[in-house]
Amino acid sequence: MEQKKICPRFEKALKILNHRWNTLLIYQLLEGPQRYSTIKKQLGISSRVLTERLKELESEHLVTRTVIPSTPVVIEYELTEKGHALAPVLGAIEQWSSMWVNTEE
Predict the structure, then answer these.
(1) Cα 50 to Cα 9: distance, rounded to the nearest angstrom
(2) What is the predicted pLDDT for the residue at 96?
(3) 3-state SS string over 34-76?
(4) Is 70 exceeded by the pLDDT of residue 1?
C-alpha cells in the first residue's frame, strides 16, 4: 500500500493549531477584540505563555495587536481575516466534540 504524502501547508497549519493554547486563543477571539487581561482571565493561562502565543499568532497574521493611546494604555487583540477564516473549522470541531467527546473519564 502506498503511503499518502502530507501536504507541507496542511502540516504547518496543524503545527500552528496544535501549539498549546493557540486554538483556544483563536476561539476566544472569535467573540471580538479583547484586552490582554480579559484573555488571560478567560483562559487561565500564564502571562509568559500568553505573550508568546499572541506573538506567534501575530507573526502568522492570524491576530493583530492594537495599542489604544489612553491613560493607562490599552492593548487589544483581534483576529485578522485569516484568523476569522478558522471559524467554520472550530465550529465543526465544536459540533463533533459535543457528539463524541466525553469529559467524564
Answers:
(1) 25
(2) 96
(3) EEHHHHHHHHCCCHHHHHHHHHHHHHCCCEEEEEECCCCCEEE
(4) no
